[in-house]
Amino acid sequence: MYFSSAGMVSGDSVTPDKEEYTPTEGSSVSLSCTYETSSDYIYLYWFRHYSNQAPQFILYKGARSYSSERISDKRYKSTTSRTSTELVITSLTLADTALYYCALRDYTQ
């Protein structure tokens, strides 16, 4: 099983903390990104991308001044801080092998 994360910029900057993950089936994995922005009104997003397909929405979670969230599957959990976001995927299967993106959206613009 191969995991990778990448930052998509839609604010100031988003950087994955690690680029490759190799967990085992049935285990959990924690993916994280660090971000920088001057805004207090942001949402952090996670997407999954399979080759030759459009990216799939996993979740968004508010940070700083926002606290709402939307999560597409109970196996996904997310935490945020003032400078980072984490995605935890539990009960991994081979179908979870993909490229994962974290993204930031500033709602003051």
UniProtKB/TrEMBL annotation:
Region called Disordered, residue ranges: 1-30
Regions that span the bilayer: none
Chain ranges of the Ig-like domain: 16-109
Sorted UniProt keywords: Adaptive immunity, Immunity, Immunoglobulin domain, Receptor, Signal, T cell receptor
The keyword Signal belongs to this UniProt entry's keyword annotation: yes
InterPro entries for this protein: Ig-like_dom (IPR007110), Ig-like_dom_sf (IPR036179), Ig-like_fold (IPR013783), Ig_sub (IPR003599), Ig_V-set (IPR013106), TCR_variable_region (IPR051287)
GO BP terms: adaptive immune response
GO cellular component: T cell receptor complex
SMART domains in alphabetical order: IG (SM00409), IGv (SM00406)
Domain of life according to the entry: Eukaryota
PROSITE patterns: IG_LIKE (PS50835)
Full protein name: Ig-like domain-containing protein
